[in-house]
Design brief:
The protein is of the alpha/beta class. The chain folds into two domains: 30 residues; 97 residues, Immunoglobulin-like (Sandwich). A four-stranded mixed β-sheet has the order 2-1-4-7, with no helix packed on it. The termini are far apart.
């Protein structure tokens, strides 16, 4: 039987009255929790900024222009109303990225009866101007670049001209 050294025993197992003693090169628990919390907070802030950025249309909205956003889900809004003979500014934006395999993020707003055929690239917007017809009526618009083309009901909309 071997005899234990009491000085070694005290050094290894003594209590330091409420202080945490790092063992094995590990950081104290409170510091590990703090570092983890900080990293989680930074990741959450980055994620929220990415989501908010994706939901906002490209470009600065132009005052007085009708806003029309096109994406793989369709047009937003799907219906526009203008007065007869009115000069109308439309800010047309593509919400999709260039990584889309169908159309590469490009979208179109076409109204055959009015000779309108506007196109915008991925994640961009452009302001177009037209004069509404003098006679009230309803006109269909569509995107024929992607998303199933002109035949896809979600890629269609309606322009109503009122008196």
């Amino acid at each position: 039987m071997t005899r234990r050294s009491t000085s070694r025993y005290r050094a290894d197992h003594s209590s330091t009255a409420g202080q945490s003693v790092p063992t094995g090169g590990r950081l104290p628990r409170w510091l590990r929790i703090g570092v983890f919390g900080t990293i989680a907070l930074v990741v959450a802030i980055v994620a929220v900024n990415l989501v908010i950025g994706r939901l906002q249309p490209p470009g600065t909205p132009q005052a007085g222009a009708l806003q029309v956003h096109a994406s793989m889900e369709g047009f937003d809004p799907g219906e526009l109303t203008v007065k007869a003979s009115q000069t109308v500014d439309v800010q047309f934006a593509s919400m999709d990225t260039a990584m889309h395999s169908d159309g590469g993020g490009w979208h179109e707003l076409a109204i055959e009866a009015l000779g309108i055929d506007w196109k915008v690239g991925p994640e961009s917007s452009k302001v177009f101007t037209f004069t509404a017809p003098s006679t009230p009526g309803t006109y269909q618009f569509y995107c024929d670049i992607c998303c199933g083309g002109k035949a896809n009901p979600s890629m269609q909309g309606k322009l109503t001209v009122t008196a």
